[in-house]
Design brief:
Chain B: Pfam families: Glyco_hydro_20, Glycohydro_20b2. Chain B: This is Beta-hexosaminidase. Chain B: GO terms for molecular function: beta-N-acetylhexosaminidase activity. Chain B: It is an enzyme of class 3 (hydrolase). The complex is a heterodimer. Chain A is an alpha/beta fold. Helices cover 34% and strands 22% of the residues of chain A. In chain A, the strands form three sheets. In chain A, strands 9-8-7-16-15-14-13-12 form an eight-stranded parallel beta sheet. A five-stranded mixed β-barrel of chain A has the order 1-2-4-3-6. Chain B is of the alpha/beta class. Chain B has two domains: 134 residues, 2-Layer Sandwich (Chitobiase, domain 2), CATH 3.30.379; 321 residues, TIM Barrel (Alpha-Beta Barrel). Chain B is 34% helix and 20% strand. In chain B, α3 runs parallel beside α4, α5 runs parallel beside α7 and α9 packs across α12. Classes of the chains: A alpha/beta, B alpha/beta. Chains A and B meet through α3 and α14 of A and α1, α5 and α17 of B.
């Protein structure tokens, strides 16, 4: 990004046009309309905000000319998000070139953020940008099982993900009872697609499934037994010894594969407790009959079944790290998501990332970015300084790092506080996953992050003030346009 | 959504839907718990056009039409949601249809005050099964009684209903405060009003408005306009006197007092630019002014004059008979470095810096006396030995892990009234559930005589503003502040968090249905998924049912 001192004013009715040699991708009309609204929302607040004074404008920008080489239509693991943006001195044209429509989204977002007041007029500096993501998988996990999230909150969150150049919504959806209607899911997936966001659903098995039990039939969950060998009335993980349970999963995942168009499914596989399996005499018998000596082997059998279902549905899959650690056979396209918290302080180099990539599998970093763990004060810096490639390994191994995933698990969040708790803390992770490795100084990031929070407030996102200790830095204690929940922010998302 | 269709159509799924029904006995419970409440099995259904009338012998208190209108809207909102909410089936049929709420008031007080009478009695089902009888000593009891009544409504056979009930209720403590801080971050007026509304629902009665501090000065004075012009974050991050009066009136209509705090002589950096060059103390390093500024300089008469001018205006704007004079955390380093202060102290035989702090605070206390205001001060003013009148309320804020007990003991031993704040700084958040910690605090849990315990006026919860603004303040406060609300209103014996848990969950759900974003911090749904949801989820983009 090269920014020079000279600047142009920006027309409030700025037009977006496609150049003669551009492809016409289906999301572009909606996209142009959205950014026209967003840019206007910035104009409204600019009047009141601080105003730099230097010189006269070199021109007046009234048109953004977009050139797209190729329409990809559906965002994917190999989606091309690169773009270049050229604001020439004196020209009324901004040129935005993108390999695919996703680069147009990213480029317009950058352009919208660059508009600022000079002599009280909305302006942009003469600028040249060449931009592309460092990591291909920049995910965010929402959990609609622990608490229900209204569709409006999910959509606002997807918009915020897009503004922050995240590209994957990892939807920990699991709970059958809170499963929304298919039409609602399709609506959300389309909403995300228009913003360059993939939706990867997670159906976590064989643990974390107690809510499936009532709907899945009497043989689905394992009956736990007490010390005297009698069923104690409680239920454990899915019972992996019955073929009917695999059939149920096949039916469910076949439907899921149709609803969720992304090439990846998240198969879960984390935190399987073995106690109940151990207590169950049918399982003991089954293991003896099948020469199994350890419970990870039994777990492996189940996950192997899920993996085979996914492969038969021509889906790739993401699994939590335990699946890899327990030695389940997984194909080479599998993405392994690291999630176990390293309790050593100071943090050790990440051994899971090292092992996963050493075995030739793709890896995602997740555990440092569990934003649900809140604390008093400012914490974005610790998310910002994480480095996904900080493990012992070869260059080849580092290339297998697909990126990372941020999470807001749902134990203590619902529609009342999801957006506030997530933003702008997740913006710190967004920069780690998009920007170059060297962009890692929290000191230089601080004023930019503060500016970015203020801009998100103008757009109507309740991004909380997690920026700085304002006792020491009162200049970061306010935004020019405060967030007011009674304002009408419709049309900005 | 899915479980509703399962409930209606799927036999196999009926059990699954039942799994989501909370225990029936918590539906229609009240938060905070009334002093005396007898609930019977029989019930009446509510008429959708329920009328509110005053008995002929009641005086016409000016807030009553607004109160009736608000609670009519809240009660009517139950009819909209009844068809989709949880249903309970009783074998018996309703004993009657309630179409009238008859309110009797003994006396209008007009302004909420330290002596406000908030007691009320509520009778549902007898002597009449067609009307509810609500009797209150003053208008404040009407607000609380209608709030209680509204919480008791629950659906039986798809119809909003109320069990036959007898309630006699009054607050345990007369001062049930909540501090907001508009200096660290500006709070939009709409957010302050939403907070006041939620306080009223939770039977809080004092908004402690920490309006200015070192970070910014948003109080827009007409007599000293330069204070906010130079001290606010921007000229738009201010509260005009009209806006403040509007907020005070909004609070009065809800039975909430507004006590402003102008904290001096520390925490005053933002006053400096507008208050003139002599206001803040210049700090010295190696015998020379180093360019930094400390607390207010207490040696210049003009600084007292400025405060008198300001407080004279504040006295007219804020109708409450109490002012909060602050007085916390005065750092002495800068005063010690300043040679003019050293000279002054020598001339006046002052030997400690606490003495010169006392000179300042005494000046503020004298101004308050002249304006006929009572005052609240932070505990340091008492601890440092400033002479304060017997009407002074001392607010204890230090020692949240337990040493607050010693301070409460000392304050009340000296005959002063005390407010406890230390254990209830809700701004200190952590992962997981923390309301039990606030709930289990007992303000009179210190060594003292009964006479001392009677000097405990109550308590104050606080949401200091370092990390909150309009984006997150409401969900951070609620429902955690509800735990403190019950401690300050209900009887001392109502102290089991295990018993309170489900009532609090029910109360959160009711607040959500009213449009307040009260966050889910009540329990761990991994352990007890029955309490992982509310029948009416909060939708941040649906303002249609904001019943503020």
């Amino acid at each position: 990004m090269k920014v020079s001192e000279s600047f142009s004013t920006v027309d409030p009715n700025i037009q977006f046009i496609l150049s003669a040699d551009s492809e016409h991708c289906d999301i572009l009309n909606d996209l142009f309309e959205r950014y026209q609204n967003l840019i206007r929302s910035h104009f409204k607040s600019l009047v009141y905000s601080y105003s730099k004074k230097y010189g006269d404008p070199s021109g007046h920008v009234d048109t953004v000319e977009v050139t797209v080489k190729n329409c990809e239509v559906v965002p994917s693991q190999s989606m091309n998000e690169s773009y270049s943006l050229d604001i020439e001195e004196g020209s009324n044209f901004v040129k935005l070139n993108a390999e695919a429509e996703w680069g147009v989204i990213r480029g317009l977002e950058s352009f919208a953020q660059m508009i600022h007041p000079i002599n009280y007029a909305p302006s942009v500096n003469t600028t040249t940008i060449t931009d592309f993501p460092r990591f291909q998988f920049r995910g965010f996990l929402i959990d609609t099982s622990r608490h229900y999230l209204p569709i409006s909150a999910i959509k606002a969150h997807i918009s915020a993900l897009s503004w922050n150049k995240f590209n994957v919504l990892h939807w920990h959806i699991v709970d059958l009872e809170s499963f929304p209607y298919e039409s609602e899911i399709k609506d959300i997936i389309e909403y995300a697609r228009q913003r360059g966001i993939r939706v990867v659903p997670e159906f976590d098995t064989p643990g974390h499934t107690s809510s499936w039990g009532p709907g899945a039939g009497p043989n689905f969950l394992t009956r736990c037994y007490d010390q005297d060998g009698n069923p104690d009335g409680t239920l454990g993980p899915i019972n992996p010894i019955y073929a009917e349970n695999y059939l149920l999963m096949k039916r469910l995942l076949t439907e899921v594969a149709q609803v969720f168009e992304d090439a990846y499914l998240h198969l879960g596989g984390d935190e399987v407790p073995f106690g109940c399996w151990k207590s169950n005499p049918d399982i003991t018998e089954y293991m003896a009959a099948n020469n199994m000596t350890t419970y990870p082997q039994l777990e492996q059998q189940w996950v192997q079944g899920m993996v085979e279902i996914a492969e038969s549905l021509k889906k790739h899959y993401v699994v939590w790290e335990e699946v890899f650690v327990n030695g389940v056979k997984i194909n080479n396209n599998t993405v392994v998501e690291q999630m176990l918290v390293d309790l050593e302080e100071p943090r050790q180099l990440n051994t899971t990332m090292e092992a996963v990539t050493k075995s030739g599998h793709k890896a995602l970093l997740a555990s440092p970015w569990y934003l649900n763990y809140i604390s008093y004060g400012v914490d974005w810096q610790k998310y910002y300084v994480e480095e996904p490639t900080a493990f012992n390994g070869t260059e080849e191994q580092k290339k297998l790092v697909m990126g990372g995933s941020t999470a807001m698990w749902g134990e203590y969040v619902d529609g009342t506080n999801l957006l506030q708790r997530t933003w702008p803390r997740a913006s710190a992770v967004a920069e780690r996953l998009w920007s170059a490795k060297e962009v890692r100084s929290t000191q230089t990031a601080l004023p930019r992050l503060n500016e970015w929070r203020c801009r998100m407030l103008v757009r109507g996102l309740p991004a909380e003030p997690a920026i700085a200790n304002i006792n020491l830095m009162p200049e970061y204690g306010y935004c020019p346009t405060p967030y007011d929940h009674t304002n009408d922010y419709s049309g900005h998302f | 959504m899915r479980f509703l269709s399962a409930f209606l159509f799927g036999n196999a799924l009926t059990n699954a839907a039942d799994r989501f029904l909370p225990p029936w006995k918590f539906v229609g419970t009240v938060w905070p718990q009334p002093q005396s409440m007898v609930v019977k099995e029989d019930y009446q259904i509510l008429d959708a056009n329920i009328q509110f009338i005053l008995t002929p012998d009641s005086p016409q208190c000016d807030i009553i039409p607004d109160v009736f209108q608000r609670y009519q809207a809240l009660i009517r909102s139950h009819f909209k949601s009844a068809s989709s909410s949880k249903k309970l089936k009783f074998s018996s049929s309703p004993a009657g249809v309630i179409d009238t709420i008859e309110v009797k008031i003994v006396n209008c007080e007009n302004l909420p005050s330290q002596n406000m009478n908030e007691s009320y009695t509520l009778q549902v089902g007898s002597p009449s099964s067609e009307k509810v009888e609500l009797t209150a000593m003053a208008e404040w009891g009407v607000i609380h009684g209608l709030e209680t009544l509204t919480q008791m409504i629950h659906d039986i056979d798809y119809r909003p209903s109320i069990n036959s009930t007898m309630i006699t209720d009054w607050p345990r403590f007369p001062f049930r405060g909540f501090l907001i801080d508009t200096s660290r971050h500006y709070l939009p007026v709409s957010v302050i009003k939403a907070q006041i509304t939620a306080m009223s629902w939770n039977k809080y009665n004092v908004l402690h408005w920490h309006i200015v501090d070192l970070e910014s000065f948003p109080y827009q004075s007409q007599v000293l306009p330069e204070l906010s012009f130079l001290g606010a974050y921007t000229p738009l991050h201010v509260y005009t006197i009209n806006e403040i009066k509007d907020i005070i009136e909004f609070a009065r209509l809800r039975g909430v007092r507004v006590v402003p705090e102008f904290d001096t002589p520390g925490h005053t950096d933002s006053w400096g630019p507008g208050a003139g060059p002599k206001f803040l103390t210049p700090c010295y390093t190696n015998g020379k002014p180093d360019g930094t500024r400390g607390p207010i300089n207490p040696i210049y008469q003009e600084n007292y004059n400025l405060m008198r001018k300001l407080f004279t205006e504040v006295n007219q704007v804020f109708s409450d008979s109490y002012l909060h004079l602050g007085g916390d955390e005065v750092p002495f380093g800068c005063w010690k470095s300043n040679p003019d202060i050293t000279d002054y102290m020598t001339k006046h035989n002052l030997t400690t810096y606490a003495q010169i702090e006392q000179v300042w605070v005494q000046g503020m206390v004298d101004i308050a006396h002249d304006l006929k205001k009572n005052y609240v001060v932070w505990e340091e003013v008492f601890v440092n030995g400033v002479k304060i009148s017997n009407e002074t309320v001392v607010e204890v804020w230090k020692g949240k892990t337990g040493t607050w007990k010693d301070t409460m003991s000392a304050v009340t031993k000296s005959g002063h009234k005390a407010i406890l704040a230390s254990p209830w700084y809700l701004n200190y958040i952590s992962y997981g559930v923390d309301w039990e910690g606030y709930y289990n605090i007992e303000p009179t849990d210190f060594n003292g005589t009964n006479a001392q315990y009677e000097l405990v006026m109550g308590g104050s919860a606080a949401m200091w503003g370092e990390y909150v603004d309009g984006t997150n303040i409401l969900p951070r406060i609620w429902p955690r502040a509800s735990a403190v609300a019950e401690r300050l209103w209900s009887d001392k014996s109502v102290n089991s968090s295990a018993a309170a848990r489900w009532r609090l969950n029910e109360w959160r759900c009711k607040m959500l249905a009213r449009g307040l974003p009260a966050e889910p911090e009540l329990h761990n749904p991994n352990i007890d998924p029955n309490y992982g949801y509310c029948p009416t989820p909060f939708d941040p983009f649906n303002n249609a049912h904001f019943l503020f």
